[in-house]
Design goal:
The complex is a heterodimer of chains A (506) and B (323).
Chain A lengths: L3 E12 L2 E12 L3 E5 L6 H8 L7 E6 L2 E3 L4 H7 L1 E4 L11 H5 L14 H15 L14 H13 L5 E5 L7 H16 L3 E5 L3 H7 L2 E6 L2 E7 L5 H8 L18 E10 L3 E9 L3 E5 L6 H8 L7 E6 L2 E2 L5 H6 L2 E4 L3 H5 L6 H6 L7 E2 L3 E2 L1 H15 L15 H13 L5 E5 L7 H16 L3 E5 L3 H7 L2 E6 L2 E7 L5 H8 L13
Parallel strand pairs in A: 3-8, 3-9, 6-7, 7-8, 13-20, 13-21, 16-19, 19-20
Antiparallel strand pairs in A: 1-2, 1-4, 4-5, 9-10, 11-12, 11-14, 14-15, 17-18, 21-22
Chain B lengths: L1 H16 L2 H19 L6 H26 L7 H16 L6 H24 L5 H20 L9 H7 L9 H19 L1 H11 L1 H6 L4 H27 L10 H11 L11 H20 L4 H24 L1
The chains are: A alpha/beta (506), B mainly alpha (323).
């Protein structure tokens, strides 16, 4: 048994309104590949950001090579020998690969001039050791994403870390490149490095991992040797929590199809997506983050250009080239990022509520009818139970839940036929969530097609009549009735086949 | 915690009522009192009307700037368009009333054209408004130098001179009446039409505007075209005011039109403020300039003061925002 290189114990971390990590433990041994697994929001990224100095833990201890350490910022982590390859690339587009790799640690000659020759030879040496090939003089912006990822890894390696954290490194890579990455990881191990690996692909966990630690809802679940567990075991560790009873009773859909998407394709994001929604139905969209859910909504809503794809309401094919047309034809979207996409924070609540439906309340053909607008916003406030002091206050003065209600209110003003909810309850309190669930229900019952994506699996399960699970930009399965379980959804979300469970299509 | 929310609520309320825009009128009153102290008789009706007539030029030129700044942009080509319109208008009129319609149309087309070029660069080439409008301004300058051959020709039509005189409506100048009408229109458009609301929306958050189905490109095109047109109107009226055209007509409006907007409490970051404040801003800039003349400060010194005023205001508003 090899020695422990890292031990994090009793780590706690809170963000406003959320306990992201509750007394979690995490450790790894020298020379292993430790996989960190769990659902969205389990706390995987949070603990690794604490380890790499990006966040500070509220409490808990970190031991690195047996010594208690405090990691105050990424530079300190780097000096200790801890390096992280982030999900989002951090390279500077307008610089060459070589310049990026040596950014901020450039060796210098006399007079502080950068020693290019030495830079290149040492990069070549490191790349040789790991079998990586890159053209050092290319601008980063001209490289394909996979090669940028490689450059990012070389940038880390040149700093000679002991412990390397890879946060979903394969999410942007094709099969062949993934294989190459495995090779590199294996050479890292043979060079005596230790790897922590976050992955959203089940097969990957079994291919490359030595041990796996599972988190759930910010808590530690268990650590197992990969060779001693099956895929089923792992899924079971990640799920398994009782359904909180905050969801209304499910609606009873009719047979009539009221909304349909056919053969939707968006290059790089979405592949051949088709689904339909029946009257009275709530269709849930599930899947791990970044598998095309937001792109799906934006493409339907006309924000993201489609290559192909038909959008049909009530048997009629719609022409949607931008959000304005989408709105005109009865589509509404509650976007995921309410502060940047949903609201005009520094304008009044009333103006925010009214902005989409301005043209419905005109007098003399050109002016805003102030009386009608006031009545409209008061009605909307009542209908959605928005808690506010005055409609004239900035919308920024409201709590998260009430802000989200304003977003919904401005969308409902057009009496939409279809409402797309993207993460409708993110960052809002339980009471507001319950209200949102009831509103969605009422909408579905009144004949509006309701489609909802949430990274909170329980929400998807609790609300949906059917669940379409997305994996790598396509719908990998549609589950309904008894099939809608956390376990099944996780199977499909990790790209595993549900063959043994009876896969369904629409 | 609850208390904090409450406070923010109140601040929000104040902003909604007028915020900096209400403060600017208090500032205007203060400056007028100071003026009266420095130069007794300053507040006589005749002098007030003279000052307002001068302020009207700044005020009209600042209409477009107010629109541009509200969308989060800026128009630095205004001074050049003023001169361009001044030269073209004078040349087309050539002192004849019968040429007036042609002159008006030409000048409006010139303004709208420059605005169109500005907006195309900003929207399609994604050039920041600051750079785009400055670049276009320089090009416009080159064009009117070539067009005029360095010596502008022509002069005002008698009718335009009348209109810009001091007594067309009793003692009130026609320019002042025009400014008043335009002000009513602009304030109404910004406050009481969907188009106005959309301008604020685009200025606060372009992304949310797009998600809300607002035609963001259309809004941006419209504000720069409006800006070109109001600058052109200013340049045209200045022909009537001075009787002829000059190569440096627009120069003194280069900073004042922006200063009027900023003093008027329109946030330089966009989305907040309005033309009501700009009106006071235009008067303040005119009175300050006049006062500096009274206490014998040279043109160069007055420019220094204008620059300092703009910087101080932008700084103080950005501080407010942080709080």
């Amino acid at each position: 048994m090899s020695e422990e290189i890292l031990r994090m114990s009793h780590i706690c971390k809170s963000f406003p309104g959320v306990k992201a990590l509750k007394e979690v433990d995490f450790s790894c041994k020298k020379g292993e590949v430790m996989v960190l697994a769990g659902e969205n929001g389990a706390g995987k990224s949070t603990i690794l950001k604490i380890l790499s100095g990006l966040y500070q833990a509220d409490s808990g201890e970190i031991f690195f090579n047996g010594k208690a350490v405090k990691i105050k910022n990424p530079l300190e982590a780097q000096k200790m020998g801890i390096a992280m390859v982030y999900q989002e690339l951090t390279l500077v587009n307008e610089m060459t690969v070589a310049e990026n790799i040596y950014l901020s640690i450039e060796p210098t000659k006399k007079f502080g001039l950068v020693d290019r020759k030495q830079i290149e030879s040492s990069i070549q040496e490191v790349m040789g050791q790991y079998g990586i090939e890159l053209d050092l003089q290319t601008m980063v912006k001209d490289l394909p994403v996979a090669q940028q990822q490689m450059a990012e890894i070389v940038k880390i390696l040149i700093r000679q870390p002991e412990l390397i954290i890879l946060d979903e490194p394969t999410s942007a890579l094709a099969r062949k490149e993934v294989t190459q990455l495995y090779e590199i990881i294996r050479s890292m191990i043979s060079m005596g490095k230790t790897i922590i690996f976050i992955s959203h692909r089940l097969e990957e966990v079994f291919e490359i991992g030595d041990r796996v630690t599972v988190f759930k809802d910010g808590s530690y679940v268990d650590t197992k040797k990969i060779s001693e567990i099956t895929e089923d075991d792992l899924i079971r560790m990640m799920v398994g929590r009782s359904l909180q009873n905050i969801f209304p009773e499910k609606t009873q859909p009719e047979q009539e199809i009221i909304f349909q998407v056919k053969n939707l394709n968006v290059p790089k994001h979405l592949r051949d997506i088709s689904f339909s929604v029946r009257r009275g139905e709530i269709l849930g969209i599930a899947g791990l983050q970044g598998h095309g859910q937001t792109e799906l909504f934006n493409a339907i809503y006309g924000i993201l250009p489609r290559e192909t794809g038909e959008i049909i309401t009530a048997g009629e094919s719609l022409k949607i080239g931008n959000a304005k047309q989408a709105i005109k034809q009865g589509l509404a979207l509650v976007p995921a990022d309410r502060k940047n996409e949903g609201l005009f924070l520094l304008r009044s609540i009333r103006e925010n509520l009214a902005i989409i439906s301005l043209d419905q309340r005109k007098k003399l053909g050109i002016f805003i009818d102030g009386k009608k607008e006031k009545k409209f916003s008061l009605d909307m406030k009542e209908k959605l139970a928005i808690k506010l002091a005055s409609l004239r206050n900035e919308v920024a003065s409201l709590s998260g839940g009430n802000q989200q209600k304003v977003v919904l209110g401005k969308e409902l003003a057009i009496n939409p036929k279809v409402v797309l909810f993207n993460e409708p309850t993110r960052g809002i309190d339980v009471e507001a969530k319950r209200e949102f669930y009831n509103i969605m229900h009422d909408l579905a019952r009144s004949g509006v097609a309701v489609i909802m994506y949430s990274s909170d699996l329980m929400e998807v399960i609790g609300m949906s009549n059917r669940v379409a699970v997305m994996y790598e930009g396509t719908i990998s399965a549609v589950l309904q009735g008894e099939e809608i379980t956390e376990e099944n959804i996780m199977y499909c979300a990790y790209g595993a086949s549900l063959a043994n469970k009876g896969e369904r299509t629409l | 915690m609850a208390e904090k929310t409450l406070k923010r609520g109140r601040a929000g309320n104040l902003m909604a009522i007028g915020g900096p825009q209400a403060v600017v009128y208090i500032g205007l009153a203060a400056i007028l009192i100071i003026a009266q102290i420095i130069s007794p008789g300053y507040l006589k009706m005749d002098h007030i009307l003279t000052m307002l007539r001068l302020a009207a030029f700044v005020g009209i030129a600042s209409i477009g700037q107010t629109f541009a700044v509200l969308t989060g942009g800026i128009d630095l080509s205004i001074a050049y368009v003023i001169t361009f319109a001044n030269i073209v208008g004078s040349q087309v009129m050539y002192g004849e009333n019968q040429n007036l319609p042609a002159a008006v149309l030409t000048v409006l087309a010139v303004g709208a054209g420059v605005g169109l070029v500005n907006s195309m660069g900003i929207k399609f080439l994604k050039i920041p408004p600051f750079i785009m409008t400055l670049g276009v301004g320089t090009i416009v300058q080159g064009i009117y130098m070539i067009y005029s051959g360095g010596a502008p020709k022509g002069n005002t039509a008698p009718l335009l001179r009348e209109m810009c005189g001091n007594n067309i409506f009793g003692r009130v100048s026609g320019i002042l009446v025009l400014w008043f009408i335009l002000s009513v229109v602009v304030i109404t458009v910004l406050k009481f039409t969907p188009y106005g609301r959309k301008i604020y929306a685009v200025g606060i958050n372009q992304k949310a505007a797009r998600f809300s189905g607002i035609n963001v490109s259309g809004i941006i095109f419209s504000v720069y075209i409006i800006s070109g047109i109001t600058a052109a109107i200013t340049g045209f009226l200045l022909v009537g005011f001075t009787g002829t055209s000059y190569l440096d007509t627009g120069t003194k409006y280069a900073t004042t039109n922006l200063a009027a907007v900023v003093i008027g409490g329109t946030a330089i970051t966009g989305g907040r403020g309005g033309y009501g404040g700009t009106i006071a801003g235009a008067i303040i800039m005119t009175v300050i300039d006049d006062l500096l003349v009274i206490i014998n400060i040279s043109q160069a010194g007055r420019q220094v003061v204008q620059g300092i005023i703009i910087l101080l205001l932008v700084f103080s508003y950005s501080q407010q925002k942080k709080n």
